[in-house]
Amino acid sequence: MSLSFELAQATVPADHNRADIACFIGHVARRSSVPLPAALREQLAAAGWVAGNWARPAAEIEGLDNLPIALDSWDQFDALFAWEARPVDKDGRRRCATYLGAAVRSFFAHGGRRAIVIRVGDPWPLLEDAAVRTAQRRPRLRRLLPDYAHLEAPTTPFAPGDPSTWQGIQHLYGRREASLVLLPDLADACAVAPPEPELAPIPPAPPEGFAECSADEAPEPDTSLAGTPPPRLDPDGYAAWQAAVEAARRFLDVQMGPREAMLVASLPLPQVEASRVKGSGRVYAQADTLAWLERVGLLTAKVTGDRPAEALVQLAWPWLALRAGADLPAGLEPPEGTLAGLIAASAVERGCHRSVAGEYSRLRLRDLVRAEPTPACGLADDAPDARLARRVCLFAKQPDGWALQSDVTALAAGACRFGGASRLIGNLLRACRVAGESVVFEPGGERTWAQLRASLTDVLFAYWRAGAFSGASPAEAWSLRCDTATMTQNDLDNGRLVVHLTVWPAMAIERITVVLALGGGADGLREAA
User: Fold this and answer.
1) Is 127 helix (H, G, I), strand (E, B) or coil?
2) What is the pLDDT of residue 220?
């Protein structure tokens, strides 16, 4: 007879005002030997996946196939998913960690407290034939992003009212508490087939016998994956990666509404020959990453309506070697999990508006050993890495340790180029939406307008007291209007309520204007610089 104890997972209601919840979408195997905990089954039942119009078969429920679950610790993830059992080659004798598992591990290790995980399938072998990898690229990306490359091959339109059809990123429509979105398999899915590494043969198991234990001897580090290359992209792979990022950005901007969530992605590692841009006849040195990215269009500014879509993306660079990452090819992992953990920890401890770069990140990156490539620090403003840091969240080694050198979005200019400002506006829009929903069914008029102004003033005052806005007084921090001057007669006739809100973020010189429109078939929240 034996006893086992399982820590029950408390049912925590979704909080749309949180700015620290990250959603991870990717490939990882389910541990078949571990039954689904009752608390998670209740979580899925409450969301309508167990019974109802969009109920899933019992096997899919137990296997967590294409279903979102909320987890509050790395131990919960580790118990459910075989994240460390990705086959290295076809025979499956060698195993390595999945990039999804590494990202979740780094997220919790660097301060994350809640993750939503969407398993879209099992991982593929790390080493596979080039023909297989090329043929499987599109199906693998579409499990993550059903709208990937929609212009080339139309897919089934997204049906917000039919959750039974949702796949991958589309589940965010029902999990709006997530403010960060990560696709850790993206670079690997777009990579070329790596060359066969020279792997040492697996030694036979030693004969059974007695061995004296010694607490003084440290275990030997696992170096079996040190010679296995990480995923690298050629120009075609970068084109596929860019299309995938654009598909994710398009879904977040069009289907989710402005600033509902932000994509945190890692720049992929290039092949040496990928530095030569097709048809240009010019070769860019790997150190000048920004010049190459701009030349191939990976950082070209895109505007959706009156909103800069680049503000919805934070790109991280370079790839990181953490102490826990010896189970990854070459010991390297995409930096997005680490960046998301820093952002989540800062949002809880200091507020989402504060930058996570500098001293705050240095104190949390003590487990960072090296990076590939190694960016320089302390360079002049016109140096390649310094210019790259204006568009990409750059990890660099400082004299006193590793730190995040920049916390920025992919936007080239404007207040929302700063990561803290962009996250602040996203969180503010969420809070405004909640306040606006309280008066959606109220009759239009001065009483309703005054009620909404009072609710929004309470929200803004809380942000100001937390230091999110500049200004010595509320009058210097924001301007709020909701009256006949903000609405046309057409708005009034169609039951549309419009609020004009201007805020001055503490970290940006530029001011940002937010327009809130409710009812009458309005598009919802809009923003204009």
Assistant:
1) coil
2) 45
Domain region containing 488: 440-528
Say what the pLDDT of residue 30 is.
97
CATH number, domain containing residue 448:
3.30.360.90
240 & 375 share domain? yes
DSSP conformational letter for 414: S
Q: Is residue 276 part of a domain?
A: yes
Strands 368-372 and 319-322: antiparallel
Q: How confident is the model at residue 118 (pLDDT cuts 50, 70, 90)?
A: very high
Instruction: Give the SS3 label for residue 304.
Output: strand
User: CA 350 → CA 159, 414, 416, 420, distances in Å?
Assistant: 38, 23, 19, 11
Q: Is residue 425 part of a domain?
A: no
The answer on 480 and 343 residing in a single domain is no
Q: Does residue 349 share a domain with residue 297?
A: yes
Residue 331 is given by DSSP the state: G
Q: Residues 474, 461: contact at Cβ < 8 Å?
A: yes
Rg of the chain over Cα atoms, rounded to whole angstroms, equals: 24
E strands in 28-66: 29-30
The answer to whether the Cα torsion of 525, 464, 341, 355 is positive or negative is: positive
| Measured distance CA(523)–CA(258) in Å, rounded | 10
Question: Which residue(s) pair with 370 in the sheet?
Answer: 321
How far is it, in rounded angstroms, from Cα 529 to Cα 527?
Answer: 7
Is residue 30 in some structural domain?
yes
Q: Is the pLDDT of residue 223 over 60?
A: no
pLDDT digits (tens, 9 = 90+) for 397-435: 888 899 999 999 888 777 778 888 888 888 888 888 777
User: What is the total count of domains within the chain?
Assistant: 2
Q: Which of 18-32, 139-153, 375-389, 506-520 has the lowest mean pLDDT?
A: 506-520
Q: Which residues contact 111 (CB under 8 A, 6 or more apart)?
A: 341, 342, 344, 345, 346, 348, 349, 364
Give the C-alpha separation, 365 to 14, whole Å: 30
Contact in structure between 288 and 379 (CB atoms under 8 Å): no
| C-alpha–C-alpha distance, residues 445 and 131, integer Å | 65
- What sign results for the dihedral spanned by CA atoms 482, 487, 492, 497? negative
The C-alpha atoms of residue 61 and residue 303 are separated, in whole angstroms, by 39
